[in-house]
Amino acid sequence: MDVQEIKVFAPATIANVSCGFDVMGCCLDSVGDIMVLKRRSEKGIVISKIHGETLPMEPEKNVAGVAIMALLDALNEQPDFGFDIEIDKRIKPGSGIGSSAASAAGAVFAANELLNRPFTNHELIPFAAEGERAACGAPIADNVAPALLGGFTLVKETEPIKVIELPSIDGLYATIIHPQIEIKTSLSRDILPDHVSLKKAIHQWANVGSLVHALHTNDHELFADSLKDYIVEPHRSKLIPEFDNVIKASVDAGALGGGISGSGPSIFTFSKSEQIADNVKLAIEKIYKNTSIPFHVYTSRINELGVKIIHKK
Ligand code: HSE
User: Fold this and answer.
1) Residue 138 has what pLDDT?
2) Is the CB of 140 under 6 A from ligand 1?
3) CB-based burial of residue 207 (10 Å sphere; 0-12 exposed, 13-18 middle, 19+ buried)?
4) Full domain range(s) for residue 231
5) CATH number at residue 291
6) What is the pTM of this model?
7) Is 15 in the pocket of ligand 1 (CB under 6 A)?
């Protein structure tokens, strides 16, 4: 029977994972949006409700609508129904944990289900990336890929997009602090240098390679040692209060390491277990409580599935 309505969990994601600027990403499990998509008798896309944030209701201005339009453009035959979208926006836009990517990935995943799955999750990535283009000017896939595929991903090519799924390390938990300050993605990209030194580039690609190897071999120590960014973090960390102190206190509390989540201001750390991740949370909270900056701290295990179906009928 055709699916008439679907409710999905659209996960938050950590892009870059320190050394993999614009290519690496991983998917979170406890932070995400809830989206409901329904078939409607008239054709076209209607965004009927957005809870939690003020975002455009016009489909052509909303990343969810833009991503579904890209999907529909790729169909040989248009459906004889339209789409009604409700978004419970639980990931704050501009937080650095893939807010727009969650909307775009959740939208194309759910629309694909209503269409009886003409596309695989891999094939949905370029459509979700069109949503990212609407949000930040470029179809960057380092958040939408893990949101759709789960686990860790590597964007191997961008034109056309090709994504490699990577294994995860056992028992890995993320602790993420979102300081409630605004850093526009455009600014955090504009401050990056056009050229990097060969010496730094060598360190960086060695770390990307060793991070991938650590994931394949379940090597916590190598994973920790690879979470270093010689190129982007030195510029961006200046925009994030207490960045160095948060990383140091997290490692002192047992974390494997961390970095800036996406373009910031969120900071992520990884730990070997939930218990360590909770200790890291306390250590981070202690630092930020001494500032006047409001913040949220989340812990989450790695979500191996990506977008999840809550129910469909
Ligand atoms: N990789 C992007 C950046 C953010 O760090 O600017 C997420 O797409």
Assistant:
1) 87
2) yes
3) buried
4) 173-301
5) 3.30.70.890
6) 0.97
7) yes
